C-alpha cells in the first residue's frame, strides 16, 4: 500500500502540472496577458511557437526513452530522471505564467525568444520525467494483476491531480489576486495566476520526491534481457511492434478528441454560459467520478476485459456529447453531459496504459530485446502531440469566434457558436468513432495473450541461459584438454 500511494502521489503532481500547462496556458494568455484586439497578433505568434516547439520536441520522445533505458545508476534508471525532470520543468512553469518582468510589452521580441526557450526546456525535462514515471510500470512487476494494481493507483493519483486543478483554479486565482493585487474578491490578476501556478509546481516536485523515495525496480530474468539502446534500436522497437502502433493510432484519435473538448470547456462556461464560477463544479464532479471510475477498473478488467472497457467507454462519451448538443445554456444539463463525457476517460486511459505496458513483452518477443522506456514513451508522446494540436486549435478558435478578454455570451455571433461547436463537439465525435473501430478490429493483445507471451519468453530465455552454460562448460573442458595435452608433450 505504501508503494501504491507513493506512485499515486507522483502522478498526482505530475498531472496537475500537465493540465495546467496544456489547458490553462492559453486561457492565461488570452484573458490576462494579451486582452486587447491589438494583441491578437501576439496571441497568434505565441500559439504558433507553442505548437512548433511541442511537435518538434515530441519527435525526440522515443530518443528520450532510449536515454532512460540506457541509464544505469545506483538509484536505477527511472528515479533520477523523475526527480530532475520535475524540478526543472516546475521552475520553468512559473516563468511561463508571467510577463517576464514586463518584457511582454516593453520588448515583445525578447519576450517571444524567452518564452520559446522556456517552453522548450519545460517540454524536454517534463518528457524525461513523464517517460521515466510511466515506463517504471513494467519494471515494478511482470505479473499483469500486480501491474493493474500499480496502474490503478497511478491513474487514481493522476485523475485526482488533473481534476483538482479544475476545482481549485478559479477560487485559487481569485484568492491570490485578492491577496497579492488587493483587488475585490472575484477578480483575476496575473499575480493571482502566479500564486496558483506556484502551488502546482510544489505539488509536482513534492510528488516526484515521494515516488523516488519509495518505488524501486524489480530485477528478474525477463528484465535482464536488455542491451545498450542505439538509435536504430529505438525505431526498431516501435516500428516492429505492430500492436503498439495500432494502439497508438487509436489512442491518438481518442486523446486528441478529449483534450480539445476539455481545453474548450472553460471557454464554454465563461463565454457561452456566462458563468465562469460554475466551472468549479466540473472539477468537483470529475474528481468524484474519477475516483469511482478508477476504482472500478480492476473489477471491470477481470469481468469484461480491456477491449470492452475501451469500446464501451467511448460509447459512454458519445452519449455525453449528444447531451452537450442539446444542453445549450442549461447549466444542469451541461453538468450531466460533463459526467457522461468524463466518467469513462480514466477507464479508457487505463485500458490503453495496461495494453501498452503489456506490449513491452510483445516487443521483446518480436525484437529479441526488452525496451521499457522506449515502448512506454509512445503514450506520453501521443498525449503531448494531442495537447500541442489542442493548444493551436484553442488559440485560433478563441480569437476567431471572439472569446477573448471580457467578451460576453451575447457578443458571440451564431456563426461563431457554430464554429465553436464544430471544434468542441462535431469533430471529436467523428474521431472517437474511428478510434473505437481501430481498437476493436486491430488490437489483439489481450490479457490472455500477454500471459502466453510471458510464458514463451521465460521458456526461451531459460533455454538461452542453459545453452550459454553448456557452451561455457564445453569451453572450460576444451581448455582443460589443451592444457593436459601441453603438459603431456612437455
Describe the model.
It is a single chain. With about 500 residues, the chain is mainly α. The protein has a single domain, classed as Up-down Bundle (Growth Hormone, Chain: A). Helix content is about 80%, strand content about 0%. The protein contains 18 helices and no strands. It starts with a helix and ends with a helix. About 50% of the residues are buried. The model has no long low-confidence stretch (mean pLDDT about 85).
Q: TL;DR?
A:
With 490 residues, the chain is mainly alpha-helical.
Order of helices and strands: HHHHHHHHHHHHHHHHHH
How large is the share of residues in beta strands? under 5%
End-to-end CA span? 68 Å
The CATH superfamily title? MFS general substrate transporter like domains
* Sequence stretches where pLDDT stays below 50 over 5 or more residues: none
**Estimated structural class:** mainly alpha
Mean pLDDT, rounded to whole units?
A: 86
DSSP strand tally: 0
Considering DSSP H and I runs of 4 or more, what fraction of the residues is helical? over 70%
Amino acid at each position: 500500500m505504501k508503494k501504491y500511494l507513493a506512485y499515486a502521489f507522483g502522478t498526482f503532481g505530475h498531472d496537475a502540472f500537465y493540465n495546467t500547462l496544456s489547458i490553462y496556458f492559453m486561457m492565461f494568455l488570452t484573458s490576462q496577458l494579451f486582452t486587447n484586439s491589438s494583441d491578437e497578433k501576439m496571441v497568434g505568434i505565441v500559439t504558433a511557437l507553442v505548437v512548433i516547439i511541442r511537435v518538434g520536441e515530441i519527435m525526440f520522445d522515443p530518443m528520450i526513452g532510449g536515454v532512460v533505458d540506457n541509464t544505469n545508476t545506483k538509484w536505477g534508471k527511472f528515479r533520477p530522471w523523475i526527480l530532475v525532470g520535475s524540478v526543472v520543468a516546475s521552475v520553468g512553469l512559473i516563468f511561463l505564467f508571467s510577463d517576464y518582468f514586463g518584457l511582454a510589452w516593453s520588448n515583445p521580441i525578447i519576450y517571444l525568444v524567452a518564452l520559446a526557450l522556456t517552453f522548450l526546456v519545460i517540454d524536454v525535462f517534463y518528457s524525461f520525467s513523464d517517460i521515466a514515471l510511466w515506463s517504471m510500470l513494467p519494471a515494478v512487476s511482470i505479473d499483469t494483476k500486480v501491474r493493474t494494481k500499480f496502474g490503478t493507483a497511478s491513474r487514481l493519483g493522476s485523475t485526482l491531480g488533473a481534476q483538482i486543478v479544475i476545482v481549485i483554479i478559479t477560487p485559487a486565482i481569485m484568492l491570490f489576486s485578492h491577496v497579492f493585487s488587493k483587488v475585490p474578491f472575484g477578480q483575476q490578476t496575473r499575480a493571482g495566476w502566479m500564486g496558483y501556478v506556484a502551488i502546482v509546481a510544489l505539488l509536482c516536485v513534492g510528488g516526484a520526491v515521494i515516488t523516488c523515495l519509495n518505488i524501486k525496480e524489480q530485477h528478474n530474468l525477463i528484465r535482464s534481457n536488455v542491451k545498450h539502446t542505439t538509435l536504430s534500436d529505438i525505431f526498431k522497437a516501435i516500428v516492429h511492434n505492430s500492436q503498439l502502433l495500432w494502439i497508438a493510432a487509436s489512442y491518438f484519435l481518442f486523446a486528441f478528441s478529449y483534450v480539445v473538448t476539455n481545453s474548450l470547456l472553460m471557454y464554454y462556461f465563461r463565454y457561452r454560459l456566462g458563468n465562469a464560477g460554475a466551472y468549479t463544479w466540473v472539477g468537483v464532479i470529475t474528481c468524484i467520478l474519477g475516483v469511482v471510475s478508477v476504482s472500478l477498473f480492476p473489477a471491470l478488467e477481470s469481468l469484461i476485459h480491456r477491449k470492452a472497457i475501451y469500446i464501451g467507454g467511448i460509447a459512454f462519451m458519445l452519449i455525453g456529447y449528444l447531451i452537450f448538443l442539446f444542453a445549450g445554456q442549461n447549466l444542469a444539463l451541461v453538468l450531466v453531459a460533463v459526467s457522461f463525457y468524463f466518467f469513462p476517460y480514466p477507464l479508457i486511459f487505463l485500458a490503453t496504459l495496461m495494453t501498452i505496458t503489456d506490449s513491452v513483452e510483445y516487443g521483446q518477443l518480436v525484437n529479441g530485446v526488452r525496451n521499457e522506456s522506449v515502448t512506454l514513451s509512445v503514450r506520453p508522446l501521443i498525449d503531448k502531440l494531442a495537447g500541442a494540436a489542442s493548444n493551436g486549435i484553442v488559440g485560433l478558435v478563441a480569437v476567431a469566434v471572439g472569446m477573448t478578454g471580457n467578451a460576453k455570451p451575447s457578443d458571440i455571433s451564431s456563426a461563431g457558436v457554430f464554429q465553436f461547436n464544430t471544434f468542441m463537439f462535431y469533430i471529436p465525435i467523428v474521431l472517437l468513432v474511428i478510434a473505437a473501430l481501430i481498437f476493436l478490429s486491430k488490437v489483439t493483445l489481450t490479457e490472455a495473450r500477454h500471459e502466453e507471451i510471458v510464458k514463451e519468453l521465460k521458456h526461451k530465455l531459460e533455454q538461452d541461459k542453459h545453452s550459454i552454460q553448456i557452451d561455457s562448460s564445453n569451453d572450460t573442458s576444451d581448455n582443460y584438454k589443451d592444457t593436459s595435452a601441453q603438459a603431456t608433450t612437455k
